Amino acid sequence: MTSGRPFSADSYELRRPISPPLCGEGAGAGGLPTAVVLPTPPPHPSPTRGVGGITLAPITLETAAHLGRAFAAMEPWSRYPFSPEALATYFAGGEPHAPRFAVEVGGETAGAIGLRLELLRGPYLQFLGILPAYQRLGLGSLLLQWMEREAGSSARNLWVCAADFNADAQRFYERHGFTRVALLDDLVQDGRDEVLLRKRLK
């Protein structure tokens, strides 16, 4: 999870408009964008990384396998019974109302984002992960801004869950306007609770 400097929501550039919006009337109809180009991040400490544009791109099988191996070894996912193969299957299995994208920086895979387009009058952020080499660049903030911008005028809420032990993720979402609304016991695994967070848009 990242927590760097946010980007202006006014600077988004799409390869083609996302239509219809991510949630609300007609959500999911008409297909999803081939790719979405987002603003360029601030410079990365390494001169070879973070120098190109940020793109949300469809996840290929090869990229899904790479992401599955990477995130299975990272917290919080390493604390759950998620094998690299199970995560790769998730990344590769996008559905019309549950799109998944690879986050690319300068043409290299930097992470992944997955959504459920409609949950209680707004989209649900099902997965957000940034690989270590690209953390603290503000990518997480940028992706939340993109999600909110594309939610559509009929959306009243944004939703996300964070593991009860993942204090960093909870603080990250709270800094971006989310508040805790429920504790879901044993949701993913016995003995582990999930914190449901909501951001009101209206």
Structure description:
There is one protein chain. This protein has 202 residues and is of the alpha+beta class. Helices cover 21% and strands 29% of the residues. It has four helices and nine strands. The protein has helices spanning 61-72, 84-92, 139-150, 167-175, and strands spanning 13-14, 36-38, 54-58, 100-105, 108-116, 124-130, 157-163, 179-189, 192-200. Strands 1-2-3-4-5-6-7-9-8 form a nine-stranded mixed β-sheet, with helices on both faces. Strand 4 and strand 5 form a beta hairpin. Helix 1 (61-72) crosses helix 2 (84-92). Residues 1-35 and 39-52 have low confidence and may be disordered.
Topology (elements, then pairings):
Blueprint: E1 13-14, E2 36-38, E3 54-58, H1 61-72, H2 84-92, E4 100-105, E5 108-116, E6 124-130, H3 139-150, E7 157-163, H4 167-175, E8 179-189, E9 192-200
Parallel strand pairs: 6-7
Antiparallel strand pairs: 1-2, 2-3, 3-4, 4-5, 5-6, 7-9, 8-9
Keywords, please?
single chain; 202 residues; alpha+beta; Aminopeptidase; nine-stranded mixed β-sheet; 4 helices; globular
